[in-house]
């Protein structure tokens, strides 16, 4: 991408910095760009929304369609004990879903967002074809594997799958394990691009 292109996107998504969460500038750009390439009336499924940092970037990129934001909004990290301590420490006293909704409203992206309050396994049956699946929920191997197994088959041909927190030198992390051991070893997805720890594949 040209320097001018990068600059224009960084201006367009600059409010993402005001939302608490975990995304580098490059990862935020990767989510935005991928969402911007989707067809009209696209379906984006985000597993793990927290306070809406990534949801905001997806919404800014999306031309039309819906982003389904799945999260229990209770700071539960599933089997991932390390993150559990981090989420609990960061949670504060306000209701997480209220914070998420306020963020989406304050930054004018609420109209394309559908909140699914609960755990990923509760909602897999609600989706047929997904244009972009973003997995950023339970980061344990068991949790991330479950999300991949429940949802990846629903990504349409030519659609995208992305994992946050893919670090090739950290095989103990759920996203790294799933990408290296399941995604790359299956015939289903081919590598598209990586933005820092955001690994993106395309469905064959
Ligand atoms: C790393 S945070 C997500 C960060 C967010 N994408 C951002 O950009 O700031 C992970 C979130 O996933 C949620 N979570 C954990 N297990 C989940 C599950 N099984 N289904 C959906 N969300 C889950 C956690 O409660 C937490 O809010």
Provide structural commentary.
With 204 residues, this protein is an alpha/beta fold. It has one domain (3-203): Vaccinia Virus protein VP39 (Rossmann fold, 3-Layer(aba) Sandwich), CATH 3.40.50. Helices cover 38% and strands 23% of the residues. It has eight helices and seven strands; from the N terminus they run H-H-E-H-E-H-H-E-H-E-H-E-H-E-E. It has helices at residues 3-12, 25-36, 53-61, 81-91, 96-106, 120-123, 141-151, 174-183, and strands at residues 42-47, 65-71, 113-117, 130-135, 155-163, 189-195, 198-203. It has a seven-stranded mixed beta sheet with strand order 3-2-1-4-5-7-6, sandwiched between helices. It is globular, with a radius of gyration of 16 Å. The protein binds S-adenosylmethionine (SAM). Residues 21-23, 47-50, 53-54, 70-72, 75-78, 87, 119-120, 136-138, 143 line the site of S-adenosylmethionine.
Summarize the structure.
With 204 residues, the chain is an alpha/beta fold. The chain is 38% helix and 23% strand. Residues 21-23, 47-50, 53-54, 70-72, 75-78, 87, 119-120, 136-138, 143 line the site of S-adenosylmethionine (SAM).
